[in-house]
Amino acid sequence: MAVKFQAPDAKDDRDRLHHFLDATHAFFDELIQEGKDGHGTALFVPDMAPLIQASWNDLAHQFQEVHRGVESEWGEKLDEAGLTGNQLALKLGVVERLHARYESMGGHNALERVLDAIGNLLDSIVKATRVGEALKEFKEAVKLSIAGAEE
């Protein structure tokens, strides 16, 4: 997956958040469509894959709601949630690093770690904007559907 969570050409933190949301959408879309990592390892419990796909089809459009939430709540609320400046840079850096590790190594554990990092940022966005709760819950359901997660 050629997804990049950090936007080197972003003008400001608002652009960085919008880029993160777009990258997260692309990451989930590719992850769910492929169902395998770059090394060919199946990622999800087989009977969960169709449910994940159906759920994704139902809620992928909610990213637009979150984009609007970022715009409407831009300022103090996002700053208080750690979604600006160095706090945002740190969170995006963690996501990018763990995603790169997942890309190079593949595997269930690496995927769980990148999903946790994405979830951390999504949680901050949801708290600040009060939209996107279903996306956060979807991320958690995907994580719990990773093959081997129940071991």
Descriptive account of the structure:
This protein is mainly α and 151 residues long. The chain has one domain (13-35, 42-144). It has seven helices and no strands.
Topology of this protein?
Layout: H1 13-34, H2 49-59, H3 62-72, H4 76-80, H5 85-105, H6 108-129, H7 133-144
Helix pairs in contact: 1-2, 1-3, 2-7, 3-6, 5-6, 6-7
Summed over residues and divided by their number, the pLDDT gives a mean of 92
Low-confidence stretches: none
Largest sheet: none
Counted by DSSP, the helix tally is 7
Count of structural domains: 1
Helix fraction?
55-70%
Radius of gyration, whole Å? 15 Å
Distance between the termini: 27 Å
Annotation keywords:
single chain; 151 residues; mainly alpha; 0% strand
Quick overview of this protein structure:
The chain is an all-alpha fold. It is 69% helix and 0% strand. It contains 7 helices and no strands.
